[in-house]
Amino acid sequence: MTELKVSVLVDSDWASGSLVDDVRRGLGSHPRRLPPKWLYDDEGSRLFDEITRLPEYYPTEAERAILQAHAADIVTASGASTVVELGSGTSDKTRTLLDAFAAAGRLRRFVPVDVSEQTLRDAADMLHRRYPGLAVEALVGDFTLHLGHLPPNEPDGRRMVAFLGGTIGNLYVEERAAFLGALADSLDPGDSLLLGTDLVKPVDRLVAAYHDSQGVTAQFVRNCLAVLNRELDADFDLDAFSYVPFWDGHMERMDLRLRAESPQRVTIPGAGLDLDLHVGEELRVEISTKFRPDGIRAELAAAGFETVELFTDPAGDFGLTLARLA
User: Fold this and answer.
1) What's this model's pTM, rounded to 2 decimal places?
2) Which residues, 6+ apart, have CB-to-CB distance to 325 below 8 Å?
3) Are 297 and 285 contained in the same domain?
4) pLDDT tens digit string along 45-85?
């Protein structure tokens, strides 16, 4: 029977307190910013799931194809028996990876990390049925803050941390360096990282992936304002903002923003904040950096990771890099 241990690293009012801090810091300064994690309430998660099924949006299926083609190679090269997944959610895509570890007789322990306790418990129930005897040590926490709480290695085992979906591209350069450094500090030499990254490609395909013809991505990004209205009693008029995605060629990233189409005063009582927005003022909501193989290797090396192999889909759209801590 699957063993389940759940460690809750955040208190019950963590989300509301973190949201207030992010709003005061991000929207109370210039340029105005809101961290992308606040896109993912229930409605945002539903919309993002819809995005992953759009014909223009290639990353999800490209990464899935890599896992299906190379999961067994990843198991062999990592030498791990514990799989850690950061931002695990329902662990849907990870099942391909876990299946390969199980088939090789190497799946002893799975450590999913997510801010939603219920999501983790639901995933553990699924894992119990799929992998009898698997030890699940779930961490309810923010992977940018709680890497130091990862369970230690077993006496004769190694850990492999899976950070999939291209999520690292949502971090700015200095945030990526801090994250990779903190991850390296939490691992032992010989442990490995499986890192999903979207790769640089023609601009028209990149823009289309974030500006779909059905307008689902625009709804998704605008939804962060609905979160502020609901959680902090703000009075954003969602229809008064246009969705503005563009390619930043210098930083090689998609930049997703909301632009005020009329002058407006917005009150956010829950954060004790009033905003005076002028016509054309933008709220920076999310970036999605695209990577080149040499750049990936360099950022990993700066944190102490040695690249073992870069796996790509047949079209070369997406990459999964397996790296080992030296």
Assistant:
1) 0.94
2) 184, 187, 188, 189, 190, 191, 192, 193, 304, 305, 306
3) no
4) 889 989 999 999 999 999 999 999 999 999 999 999 999 99
